Amino acid sequence: MQLFDIDKVISEFAQKKITVELERELTSGKEAKVYVARFSTPKEKDRIAALKIYKDYNLRSFKKQQDYTAGRHIGSRTIRAAVKKKNQVGRQYIQNVWVSTEFKLLNQAYQHGCNVPEPYFATKNAVMMEYVGEARNEAFLLKDSELTTKQYETVFNIIFENMIAFFDLNFVHGDLSAFNILCWNDNLFIIDFPQAVSTRSDPNAKDLLLRDFDNIQKYFENKIDVDFNEYKRELYKLTAFI
Ligand SMILES: Nc1ncnc2c1ncn2[C@@H]1O[C@H](COP(=O)(O)OP(=O)(O)O)[C@@H](O)[C@H]1O
Ligand SMILES: [Mg+2]
Predict the structure, then answer these.
(1) Are residues 120 and 51 in contact, defined by beta-carbon separation less than 8 angstroms?
(2) Residue 140 in this model has a pLDDT that exceeds 80
């Protein structure tokens, strides 16, 4: 069994009449690999994309499984039990939720005008989206950026606006940090949504929102001069209703 079943992903895209060619690997993380890819559909030829392929669910550790499933309402009792046991059915279920959450929330956020890459397509195990960067010139992560104080202030405010927008869309990112924000040509792109949770059904949503803010605050603390508590108060007001 392969850790990343790339051939399967490519054949699943082919079934949707999307031809995919991998150009190069961008990163290989704990849960996913990201490639620069080219794709063609019957309507569009040779477009560039970022292809995020998730690790085969049988080989993922699912150590943080509690976090992934907490508050997510599982209608079927059989599936609930399977998830608890972490058996084949349960793992597959979590994987489906994981990948479909990333695609669904990227779509909602993109439609809403948030700073996220445009999602293109998804299969059971992969999400294809707008590639941030140019063929040979990569975007960089916010954590590696060197901006002026004024630029950092703007960036902080954009991130905060996005947190509020996500909240309006009834979700919390849940892993927001300078590691999951890409900078490119004066634009920001927030990425990496599979762990996001619903503010409607997840009892951890409030804590996660505040944790996200703390991560962002830590990053900006020695870069900009703003009253972080004022922003935090705004978040408290928002969460008073959940
Ligand atoms: N749309 C994208 N355009 C360009 N690079 C991307 C894109 N999505 C992800 N990447 C690159 O892949 C890395 C991992 O993606 P991410 O979604 O954060 O997955 P994970 O952190 O779970 O491995 C990012 O840090 C970034 O370098
Ligand atoms: Mg990430």
Answers:
(1) no
(2) yes
Contacts 24+ apart (CB under 8 A), 226-232: 226/153, 226/156, 231/160
pLDDT over 90, % of the chain: 72
What are the structural domains of the chain?
6-131 (3.30.200.20), 137-239 (1.10.510.10)
Helix (H) or strand (E) holding 1: none
For the CA of 33, the closest atom of ligand 1 is 23
225 included as an active-site residue:
no
Average pLDDT (5-16) is 93
Contacts of 193 (CB under 8 A, 6+ apart): 101, 102, 105, 106, 109, 116, 173
CB atoms within 10 A of CB 40: 14
Helices 88-111 & 77-85 angle (0-180, nearest 10): 110
pLDDT mean over 134-153: 92
Here the tokens at position 141 are: 């992560």
Give pTM, 2 decimals: 0.94
Distance CA 92, CA 133 (A): 33
Asked if residue 177 has its Cβ within 6 Å of ligand 1, the reply is no
Between CA 73 and CA 77, with CA 74 as vertex, the angle to 5 degrees is 140
Mean pLDDT of 111-131: 97
Placement of tokens 């703007």 in the chain: 154
State the CB neighbour count (10 A cutoff) for residue 137.
8
Kindly state if the Cβ of 91 falls inside 6 Å of ligand 1.
no
